[in-house]
Every structure is written in C-alpha cells, then in structure tokens.
Amino acid sequence: MEMKSIALFLFIVQAILNIVILSEPLYADIFRCKKDSGSFLPNSTYENELLAAFKTLSTFVRLGTDSARTGQIYATSVCAGYLKIEACKSCVNNIIPLLLKSCPKIKQAFAWRSKCMVQYGPVRNVIAYDSWFFAHETSNIKAKDLGGLEKTMITLVEKLSEQAAYVDRNTKYAYGTMPYGSRQTLFMVMQCTTDIVPEDCLKCLQVRVYGEMKSCCSGATAAATLTSGCYMRYAHDDFRSR
C-alpha cells in the first residue's frame, strides 16, 4: 500500500513538472536600434515630430495595426490579435518610453514586448522583407516528441498563415490549436501588419518567420519569431491568457 502511495505521489509530481516545463513563458523585451539610419539632435524638428507622432499613437491606440504620422515621421504599433483594447493600449503606452530610452536619438527603431510591437522611423516601410529588424525568443526546454511537434507545426503553420493572409484581412491574425502525441496540444498564433498585401503576408509568415523558427528554435516547447511585417508564436499552453 505504501509503495502505491509513493508511486502515485511521484506520478503527480512528474505531471506538475511537465505542465510547468511545457508552459514556460516567453516575456523578453526586445529592442533594435537601426544605427545606420542616423541620429537626431535634442529639440530638433525630427525629435519634435517623433514625440508628436507617439503622442497621437498612444492616444488613439486601436487593435491590430495602427499608425500615426507627423511631418515625415511615422510611428506604428501592432497588438496581438487576441488582446482586448485596454491591454493593447497598456502594452503600447508602456513600451514607447522604453524604446526611446533604449535607442536614444536614433532615427529608426523597433521594440517587441510579448504582446505588442512598436516601430518608428522617417519612412513607413510596408515591405515584409525589409528585415533589418528580426528577433526570436525561445524556451531552453526541448519537446520529448520532436517528430510529432514538427509534423503538427507544419500543419498549423500552413493553415494559420493562409487564414491570416486571406481570411481575416482586417486584423491579418489567426489562432489555432492541434493535439498530438501523448496528450500534448500545440497552441499557435500568426499575424501580419495590416498594411501589407496578402501575398507578402503569406511569404512573411511561411518563409521569413517560420523559416527562421526552424533554424533557431527547432524542438523547443515554446518560441516566437518576429520581424517588422509579421510574427508567429507557439507554446504548449494557451499563452493568450497570460
């Protein structure tokens, strides 16, 4: 009887550890400063126009992709398609001062904070392959069923990238889940900025971010890859609620 109790206890402990491992969160703040874009002086026209664009952007944040322009300066935000408007506003408004602090007086920069992206610069480039900004974050834990994970990812990527590019053109966002292996479920989101055409969105998701995902993060239980035109994220729990 005592041995059965010990065995049951060990089983419960292992189950809890598996849940913790598979739901390892990704919360990195990522900043990229395009140093070859040049710099601007304090109180210059560039700085004043940039701050004015950010003020407009932070005041009128909306779900999906939002842009503000003052003079020749663009500021753009993208919130994850599953966020509510208040969470979107909070994410964008919190990351703007961090971006300005991380890239002081740099004319073009980009930031990612788990559930939103913000970028600014002298030109709003809507080409998905303008990839001066590219980043990823990944769990250090490897999945036990690597073959099952790979096959499931291929299926979900094909389905969700098509959906994001061609079905929901207002948000260019798609979410899906798929079970595999021994009681495992893969959760995934894919999203493009709404100012790129469907064909570029599909290429950005399938070639750019998923291609990089296979290189940087193969077998990880959770990962995200992103560029200025699109991003994808997956995990083994429903990270949208975090």
Folded structure, characterized:
With 242 residues, this protein is α+β, with helices and mostly antiparallel strands. The protein contains five helices and ten strands. The protein has a five-stranded antiparallel β-sheet. Helix 4 packs antiparallel against helix 5.
In short:
This protein is α+β, with helices and mostly antiparallel strands and 242 residues long. The chain has helices at residues 2-22, 45-59, 85-102, 146-167, 198-216, and strands at residues 29-33, 65-70, 73-79, 109-113, 116-121, 134-138, 173-180, 184-192, 223-227, 230-235. α4 (146-167) packs antiparallel against α5.
Protein topology:
Elements: H1 2-22, E1 29-33, H2 45-59, E2 65-70, E3 73-79, H3 85-102, E4 109-113, E5 116-121, E6 134-138, H4 146-167, E7 173-180, E8 184-192, H5 198-216, E9 223-227, E10 230-235
Antiparallel strand pairs: 1-4, 2-3, 3-5, 4-5, 6-9, 7-8, 8-10, 9-10
Helix pairs in contact: 4-5
Percentage of residues in helical conformation: 25-40%
- Record the strand order, biggest sheet: 1-4-5-3-2
**Approximately how much beta-strand content do the residues carry?**
25-35%
- The assigned structural class equals alpha+beta
Count of domains: 2
Determine Rg (CA atoms, Å).
20 Å
Architecture of the largest domain, according to CATH?
2-Layer Sandwich
Structure keywords:
242 residues; alpha+beta; Killer Toxin P4, Chain A; 2 domains; 5-stranded antiparallel β-sheet; 10 strands; elongated; disordered N terminus
